[in-house]
Amino acid sequence: MYPTGNNQTIKSWADDDRPREKLLSKGKSALSDAELLAILIGSGTRSKTAVELAQEILEAFENSLYEFSKANFASLCKFHGIGEAKAITILAALELGRRRKESDSIKRVKITTSRSIYDYLKPIFEDLDYEEFHIIILNNAHEILKTVKISQGGIAGTFVDGKLVFRTALENNARSIVLCHNHPSGQERPSANDLKLTQNLSIFGKMIDLKVLDHLKYTDNSYFSFSDSGLLQ
């Protein structure tokens, strides 16, 4: 039960009763819907704390987040204490939630063979007249989370920084990665530099439990898979 009364602000509450402090100390799942909304609102009115204002708003939407997700600018601004800036903040949060739900429903591409990697890379590398080096970031099920370009070079090659490869992978919560680069000349056989880079990255990946599943060298008409050729350490 939250402290009430016109003379008590959220700042005067115990830390465990203050939404922001509670989130930091106990985690976001410990907060009620009203407390989470109160963080977005930021401040209440002279007669209501932000939590009490949030409770009032949610009650108007039958305490249903589904109904609340239909709120618009005008309906939010009807509440005393909700001005343009606060209404926009709430609507932005609701839109992020909607987009997250939409993105979750998109079927992710799953890597099963080197050919499936090649087919996935076609729209990225096809017809490029310069080299690019990318990493494909995968989850535990070998589904593609995203693809990130690490470097771009010229016709003859591109420099790849191994530290950047793994920093990018870790920042994106990768469980494994696929290395890939194109070769505009059409030469699919790997160079000595390709081999050395792949082996070094594979060895380091094992050390930090982030496996390099393959390195695909792409040309418009064919490809070379280090994994299929037994060249991964």
Break the fold down into its secondary structure elements and pairings.
Blueprint: H1 19-26, H2 33-41, H3 50-60, H4 65-68, H5 73-77, H6 84-104, H7 114-125, E1 132-138, E2 144-152, H8 162-171, E3 176-182, H9 192-207, E4 211-218, E5 223-225
Parallel strand pairs: 3-4
Antiparallel strand pairs: 1-2, 1-3, 4-5
Helix pairs in contact: 2-3
Give a summary of the structure in a few sentences:
This protein has nine helices and five strands; from the N terminus they run αααααααββαβαββ.
Give descriptors for this structure.
15% strand; five-stranded mixed β-sheet; Cytidine Deaminase, domain 2; 233 residues
- Major β-sheet, in short? 5 strands, mixed
Number of helices: 9
Helix-strand pattern, N to C?
HHHHHHHEEHEHEE
CATH C-level category of the largest domain = Alpha Beta
What is the number of beta strands? 5
CATH 4th-level superfamily of the largest domain: Cytidine Deaminase, domain 2
Instruction: Using the coordinates shown, work out and report the CATH topology of the largest domain.
Output: Cytidine Deaminase, domain 2
Classify the beta-strand content into a percent band: 5-15%
Give the mean pLDDT: 89
Strand order of the largest sheet: 2-1-3-4-5
Shape: elongated
Helix content: 40-55%
Helix/strand/pairing class, anyone?
Answer: alpha+beta
Low-confidence stretches: none
Output the radius of gyration: 26 Å
Total domain modules: 2
Our measurement of the CA-to-CA distance between the termini, rounded to an integer number of angstroms, reads: 59 Å
